[in-house]
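Give me the fold.
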Amino acid sequence: MHEAGTLPLEAVVDLRTLSEHESKQVLATRGASFAGEAIVPDAQQAVAAAQRFGFPVVVKLVGERLAHKSERGLVRVGLGDASAVQQAAQDLLALRRADDGEVGLLVAQHVSGSRELLVGMVRDPLFGVVIVVGIGGVSAEAINDVQMRVAPLVRADLDDMLDSLSATSLLGAFRGQQPLDRDALWRTIDAVAQTAIERSDIASIDINPVIVTPQGEPIAVDALIEVHTDNQASEASTATPVFPRHADAGFRALFEPRGVVVLGASTHPGKFGFVSLHNLLASGYRGRVAATNLARETVLGIQTVESVSELPAGEFDLAFFCTPASANEQLLKDCAARGIGAAFITSAGYGEAGDSGRAAELQLVETAKAANVLLAGPNGQGVVSTPSSLCAQIVAPYPPAGAISIASQSGNFVSSFMNLARSTGVGVARAVSAGNAAAVDVADYIEWLSRDAATATVLSYIEGVTDGQRLRTALELAVARKPVVLLKGGASAEGARAASSHTGALASNDDVFSGLCRQLGVVRAAGVEEAFDAAAFFATSPLPRGNRVAILTTAGGWGVVTADALSLDGILQLAELPDDVMAQLDDLLVARWSRNNPVDCAGGETRDTIPLVLEVLASSSSVDAVVYLGIGIQANQARLMREGEFHPEHGLARIVEYHERQDERFATAAHELAQSTGKPILIATELAVADPQNAGPRTVRKLGGMCYASGPRAVRALGHAYSYARHRGLAD
């Protein structure tokens, strides 16, 4: 399997391939199911073995050096009598080469079936044992329809893997054949996983094909195991990391400090020492603020001191470093002596700067550890905590208060997410950039935020992964408490190289990472907007209890495109509207309405149409969620009237106010229905971006909701929410 390029691994030269028969024996002892077979030395005994098994049979030339037999024509199948077996055995023995080493003949029961799977294992350098399931056979490499999950697996992981294959329909009842016996396949997969976990010398396992009989029974007919000759595998530690790694008091000092001291404050508006102090004061931070400056200058009304040692002990929890790297070790000791529990270091010149920088970074970590100070950074952007009105960072923005918390390897993405928070009104609780993550990494932040009462959902950006097991454990713990939305850079080969250059971390195989996210219930987003949309959903909407969606639209095209997006999502479906709902809609809508889902009002809305139709849809037991398209249309016309030369005459003042009130009513009705029914009602319009002050989107924001920029974006967020809810057992 590794030769097919499924998982690009580091080159290894200390590998030995077990023979097919030996490989099968290793796996069979742990429950894998193989066709009956025997190893014989010559044609005569091959015939005898075939007679014991019953015809037809398969005969192969096998040996430790014969890994890929089909490529050399060393397999004969469908041999129906003794003479055919004898001739095949003689022919195969004649094909052996001097460099093949010791060979024999493998005689096996012939297994027939038109469906073939592969099952395998490889070791990821970061996450350890990875199980691979996909469409098998000789064309497996060309088809490349596989799914990957990180061991240990549970039975539900297999169903998710099979259902995620492009060719999953082949595994159900198909052309008179029985559906795949998934429980039987699970026994083989579990045998592979347990074998790999128990034997660290095994580098890879390849079972291909696993033939699915017409009765649905999966029977493996070939297997190869590669082992390290030095009995050492290149893999991540299988030890379960311990969380939390840092005391809660350190994170409280970082996010909820009683006082903040800015080290290296400056009077120059372009310096970090000025900007960070300005942002701290301008955000309305309610704690005590102090600053150091070697010249004791007054900066932004703050009388600075020359040294931290001049500050009273026990009144400051967070030190924000805007000082040269060369000064930071001593400054850190000075801070610890004043009872400061957390230090955020913006200074560059550490791990990203080469060997000397890495040495300085390690020394800084040791100093912080000895002083019991939580060390954030270095080379980081800063920290935000709206419950404390804290904006300690070297850049803008400061977001509105809310329940999304951000932990990012990149400070730029902290800014991106907070900018989206400002534009949508869906606020942020905590935000932090990990920088070089010398002592506290994204995994630590994710785990702590999952325990933080102010955080409803965790939103994270990562690039490289240095400790796959720690990240897995952190994500697993977090998802059990609240939703986690993840954006990962380095998905492509080019992106991985860029991530490595940026962070100095190793980017793991992206298919492995995606599989891990699926099995843990982590929402993995493809882009910044998608990630924020999903996080905003979790922070503002009830979880869907099913996947049946009704679409309400005031224009047909919007409904069509949104229905297409729903179909492409793959896990949501258009709700089938029952007769009683159809009858109620007939009473509310004009005769030309679509009479289908999406519910297209066809331009026949009256004053109360939208709220009443929303109520009918949301109240139906056949609908789990509603997507409403078209809010803001009336207010958009009102804006044009207000801006025109005829306003306020000609009755325009009255109609403008009416239009705006209507869109306010629609937004309010959707909000109240979501609360009363416990069902998500998603509102989408391009006006959320094109004209955020439109009465429709503005009212959605005022009520604490999310107005999505388009129907497809709303659908994508809903799909993520449903997947999470289903993973947690909260949805059908």
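The longest helix spans residues 652-677.
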